[in-house]
Structure formats: structure tokens, C-alpha cells
Amino acid sequence: MTDLVPFKRHRRLRSSEAMRQLVRETVLTVDDFIYPLFITEGDNVKNEVPSMPGVYQLSLDQLEKEIIVIDELGIKAVMLFGVPHEKDDVGTGAYIDDGIVQEATRVIKRAVPNMLVVADTCLCEYTEHGHCGVIHEKEVDNDASLKLLAKTAVSQAEAGADIIAPSNMMDGFVAVIREALDRAGFEQIPIMSYAVKYASSFYGPFRDAADSTPQFGDRKTYQMDPANRREALKEADTDVEEGADMVIVKPALSYLDIVREVKNRTNIPVVAYNVSGEYSMVKAAAINGWIDEESLVLEMFTSMKRAGADLILTYYAKEVAAWLQNK
Prior knowledge:
- The chain is an alpha/beta fold.
- It has a single domain (28-325), classed as TIM Barrel (Alpha-Beta Barrel), CATH 3.20.20.70.
- 39% of the residues lie in helices and 18% in strands.
- It contains eleven helices and twelve strands.
- The longest helix has 18 residues, at 142-159.
- The radius of gyration is 21 Å and the shape is globular.
């Protein structure tokens, strides 16, 4: 039209679904996802977490069937959280040879040897007080905790874990765990560090699933202040310097700016953890019919990848894998 001033026609590349797919910048695949599992003691246990519809605590005798389904969906990795019956002041269940995560790792490796097992390395699920380290005079003792976390990491590697994922946020945890793994002959086992882990209100449902609510105080002396950005970069830099092979940003949705900054800062894989509160809010809205669940969830994860995430830890992994297969 000659009577219009010149302008650019961006809509040309949006004219059809085929055209949109052709020029799409960010693509989700099943290879992007890691699925968290909660493993508990007992027999024939499959308890749905009340605040996380579709997520279950599983006993070891239910795990093989579950891991075969996960494998058939094309998911390559799972992260294990233990829910033991017995707890004590020093989290003994985290590092004993027959601990719940160690036994679960062996079950998975027998059933699906190629499934990557990521072991969450922390003490909170195993301590009576629910904190991520040893308590001394009502405070978490950083250096005493490191010794037990290193012991936990080695025990998990001995059981067959492919990746160690320390989530405790103690100062020096990557350096100490790296040294312990190397000394034990596990130089090839990578560390997926929870480098940037905020003291977030989005973790509420997880504490139901893992039975890990602190019995006093909170975790703000070791997890990060949600208001801080530069601190996240400092934490990520430190973990990379100490030997982390991958870094996690947790939570994801409200921290996409941090995902992007960490990605720009590092040359190692960045993992976004789509945490329990994020999952449960979307799931609740879907159950009530307020949203198009599949469309919204895929958009949500696309935003995480667009922000710079190489991998996504999410309780939605199985559903997303099925949706992607049908596309």
C-alpha cells in the first residue's frame, strides 16, 4: 500500500505452524529433563503427597516398575531423595551403606543400567531437627557438617550414583566433596552443585514429600536471601572454582533473571529446578480447570530454557515427556 510509511513485516515468519517451527529459537526435548523421586522404607508403599498431586513416595519394591516407565518415556536421569523411618542428630541414614538412597540406586541400576542416578547429597531428610547439617548450640556447624556430607557423597558413589548433587549450602561443600570423591577413586563422578539455592517459600510442598521441615528456626543462615542477585553470582563462581561440573539455580520461575546471569557467567551446564511450590500451584490450577495445563507447562519450561537453562529438574518430567511424544 503506497499510502503507508515504510515498516518491517515481522509477521511473515509467523504465518503458519510449519513456518513458526522452522524459525523457532528455543526447543524442548525429553533430554532436557530430570525427574525427582522420593524413596521411602517399607513394602508396597505408594503414597501420594497431599500437596503435590501426581507425586508419590515409593518403597523400594515399587521402584523398579516406576523406573521402567520413566525409561520408556525417554527420560535419561532421575534425582533421588530419601524418606527414612529413623532419624538422628547427625543424619546417619544419609551415609550408611544400606541407606534408602543407596539401596534405591542399586535397584535402579539393576533394572535400567543406563538410567543416570543423581543423588541429592544433604542431611535434612535424615536428621531429627530437619536442618541440612550438624547442630551445635542451636546453630548449624558448617565445618562439622562438611565431613558428614563428604561421607554421604562417597557412600552414594559407592552405591552406583552417576552424579552427586549437594544441596546443603554449606560453605566449601563442593571443594570438600570433590576431594573426598577423588580420594575414594571417584574422579570421574561429576558434581551437580546446588550453587544458587534461595531460602524460598516455594519449597513448602517438598517438605511434605521429604518430611524435612526444620524443627526449630529456619534455613536463612545458609540458604540465600531472595532479594540478592550479586550474591548468586558469587556463589556460582565459588562452586565452579571448587570443582562443580554443573550448577543448579533453585527455584526457577521467580529467578529466571538469575538463570540467565549464571548462564552468561559460566561455561558449564546450568540446571533450573522447577520446585514443588511451582509445580503444585500449576497443578492445582489445572485440577480446577482454570488453565490449559499442557500449553502452560510447556510455555513455562520454554521460558526456563530461553533464560539459559540447559537442564530442568521437575516433577512434571513424566507428563512433559508424554506430551512431547504426542507432538
